[in-house]
Design brief:
seven-stranded mixed sheet, alpha/beta
């Protein structure tokens, strides 16, 4: 018959424990604990010891279906995780540090065993342990105490697991009366579950505090608010973890020689352990939030540092462009970071070495209009790759905000987009770092609308945004520098070729044949019918060859598409064959405006600027408009109402056609009937100023900002 020994001290310790556990004054306690803390400057890496402790405690707190209340053998992924932890622990055990700390660990273990066996006060026990480790740093104190507890806890469960098959373990287990305990494991289940939970929380606290110790001092210092907050709370975290260690050690000690009537107290013990787990969990929650803030501060500092390195890199001369390209496009594990849209293969950055490179920067979803027109221009330049103006490469750089989740849908969208582009693209979204995106936004002014940033063969930025030059002149603008832009404008005059040469292949033919050309737009179908009828009638009376082309409005909505269909069906005039070309006509005008503004030109001192603003004002109005032209220089323009009246009054001014020519006679009569009353609107999408973020009330997407210039004398 087994003798049961249950000292009165255990029963006394349990009585009233709930009322006293958290009633003490934390401030007074922490003052006492801090007074004991007298570090002697010794500093060592506690992670190797923590790995060993974690390996012991995690293995002994893993349960199985066979004995749900007791630690067992882990399965599946848990086993793989523990195997990795064990390998790390075995590597760490080979050092001299464990030998140096073994005495201290054993001393703490003895202190815990003696005090817990004698029923000593938990706070006094914790203080005694603090005295043993008074010369160590806070993280070292905690890991040493956990190591001492892990020794006792590991030995306890080692005997419990081995006693059925090992005679030595069986003899030890009998002396500790473990068989009785294991046979009644169901009664102890609440206690063990609470014990396991508290142990895991204590390990998490230790890991969290060690992480604070490992924060890079180059990026964060103790006076930084979240770091200062954490430093102030770490002593409290260590103290209450010590109290948790004492509570766990007391529970393990109390299992030795436990009698039948002792099982009734298991629920109370579980409550005590759960109380500690709750308090320590709250502490670690606060520390973890401060740790997250510290990492945020560190990452911000790293971002600033990397950003300034990028700034300096662009300011430094280079023999070629590879350093710049590598800084912009990250090559992971030396994998080719580019995707060749023509050959459908991955390639290295070397294909761009000493080449003129145009960075096509856009959001993940590239606007169809921009993509369609740019693709046509690019393919045209590839038809004769030996021409000087074809000596450039295009690389798509997608900009994905760091707050945008990288979902599978986003990845599929990216893969689809890069597959339809004939030029180079980054092979993966992760190739563009957030620092690069910050540089693109702040230095190159990216804000939703696509950019074409031009790098010369040495990696110098020759144009922060050549997209306006590309829209106006195409590849003829190569090498897309500001000097080249200035040269091209010096060669230009306001003529039909500049206005519309590239939007329809019939226009150059009409110009060569010296036909009269009329471009017109608007959305009023009744006005369009009336104008087309009058224009054809006047052309017939004047004996001129007139070609009319409808160019719609800058936003070719469904209404414009329907007008296109009606014009084609009723053969009222010519129309652009593709909605992309309607968009292109108007974006070229906007590009001319932006280009002129960058050149410092104004409406007051530049004739082409005046004509551009007039055309954009036509588009901003609610009525139709027309532009007539013939040959390289002759041009005339009018609003819808004015041209209808002018053509209706053709008999009044037809005699002037013979002497002045049709366009001069038309212009003179338009001036005669012009009234000073007007109301013009100039709408410029995405003006130079940074727009405020405004979302649509219906769809929730960010809305574009429009700057309107208005002069109204009505």
């Amino acid at each position: 018959m087994t003798t049961t020994f249950t000292p009165d001290k255990f029963q006394q310790r349990r009585q009233g424990i709930g009322d006293r556990m958290f009633a003490s004054d934390d401030n007074a306690i922490m003052k006492q604990i801090k007074d004991i803390h007298v570090p002697d400057g010794r500093d060592f890496d506690v992670k190797p010891l923590l790995h060993i402790v974690e390996n012991i405690l995690i293995r002994t707190t893993t349960t199985t279906a066979l004995t749900p209340a007791l630690p067992g053998i882990p399965q599946g992924s848990a086993q793989a995780q523990l195997d990795a932890l064990e390998e790390k622990a075995l590597q760490d055990a080979s050092g001299d540090m464990i030998d140096l700390l073994a005495y201290t660990i054993n001393k703490i273990s003895c202190e815990l065993s003696c005090n817990c066996t004698s029923g000593g006060d938990a706070h006094a026990t914790a203080v005694a342990v603090f005295h043993i480790v008074s010369n160590y740093s806070w993280d070292a104190k905690l890991v040493l105490a956990l190591a001492a507890f892990a020794t006792t806890y590991g030995e306890f469960w080692l005997v419990a697991h081995l006693y059925p098959t090992n005679s030595l373990a069986k003899s030890v287990a009998i002396l500790k009366q473990l068989p009785d305990m294991l046979e009644r494991s169901d009664f102890l289940k609440p206690k063990f579950e609470a014990l396991i939970n508290l142990i895991r929380v204590m390990v998490d606290v230790a890991k969290c505090i060690v992480q604070f110790k490992d924060l890079p001092p180059h990026y964060i210092t103790p006076e930084i608010p979240p770091m200062a907050e954490a430093i102030a709370h770490i002593p409290t975290a260590v103290y209450w973890t010590f109290r948790g260690i004492v509570a766990c050690a007391s529970q393990i000690t109390s299992l030795i020689g436990m009698g039948h009537h002792e099982y009734t107290s298991s629920t109370m013990d579980a409550w005590e352990l759960s109380g500690f787990a709750h308090k320590v969990s709250n502490i670690i929650g606060h520390l973890q939030s401060q740790l997250n803030l510290c990492w945020q501060h560190i990452n911000d500092r790293k971002q600033i540092e990397a950003y300034m390195l990028l700034v300096r890199l662009f300011e430094t001369p280079h023999a070629d462009n590879i350093k710049i390209l590598r800084a912009l496009i990250f090559a992971k594990d030396d994998h080719p970071p580019l995707y060749d849209g023509f050959s459908r293969t991955k390639v290295s950055l070397d294909v761009l070495r000493r080449r003129n490179v145009m960075l096509f920067i856009s959001e993940l979803q590239v606007p169809n209009d921009e993509l369609f027109i740019l693709e046509q221009m690019y393919l045209e330049s590839r038809e004769n790759s030996t021409r000087p103006e074809s000596q450039y490469e295009v690389v798509w750089i997608p900009v994905v905000d760091r707050f945008t989740p990288r979902t599978e849908e986003k990845n599929r969208q990216f893969e689809t987009q890069k597959d339809i582009m004939p030029w180079y693209s980054v092979d993966h979204l992760s190739s563009i770092d957030q620092v690069v995106i910050k540089y693109i936004k702040e230095r190159w002014g990216f804000n939703k609308k696509p950019l074409l940033v031009v790098l010369d063969p040495q990696g110098r930025v020759v144009n922060n945004n050549a997209i306006h030059m590309m829209w106006i002149w195409g590849s003829t603008a190569f090498p897309f520098s500001s000097m080249r832009e200035e040269e091209l404008w010096k060669e230009e005059t306001w003529r039909m070729e500049l206005l519309a040469d590239s939007i329809d292949p019939r226009i150059p033919i009409w110009i060569t044949e010296e036909r009269f050309i009329c471009l017109f737009g608007g959305e009023d179908m009744e006005w369009i019918r009336k104008f087309c009828f009058l224009a054809k009638s006047v052309a017939n009376k004047a004996g001129i060859n007139l070609e009319m082309l409808y160019v719609g409005k800058s936003n070719p909505r469904e209404k414009v598409r329907k007008i296109h269909a009606i014009i084609a069906q009723d053969k009222l005039s010519h129309a652009l064959p593709d909605p992309h070309l309607v968009w292109f006509f108007w974006i070229r005008l906007e590009s001319m405006w932006y280009s002129k503004v960058q050149q410092g030109k104004t409406v007051e001192d530049d004739h082409i600027m005046q004509e551009i603003v007039t055309m954009l004002s036509f588009d901003g109005s609610d009525q139709g408009w027309v532009v007539f032209g013939k040959g390289p220089t002759e041009m005339a323009k009018a609003k819808g109402e004015d041209i209808v009246k002018c053509l209706s009054d053709f008999d009044v001014w037809r005699n002037n056609v013979v002497n002045k020519g049709f366009l001069n006679a038309l212009s003179d009569y338009l001036r005669d009937i012009h009234t000073p009353h007007h109301c013009n609107r100039l709408i410029l999408p995405g003006a130079a100023a940074n727009p405020e973020r405004v979302v649509c009330a219906e769809c929730g997407r960010p809305m574009e900002k429009f700057v309107m210039y208005r002069c109204c004398t009505d």
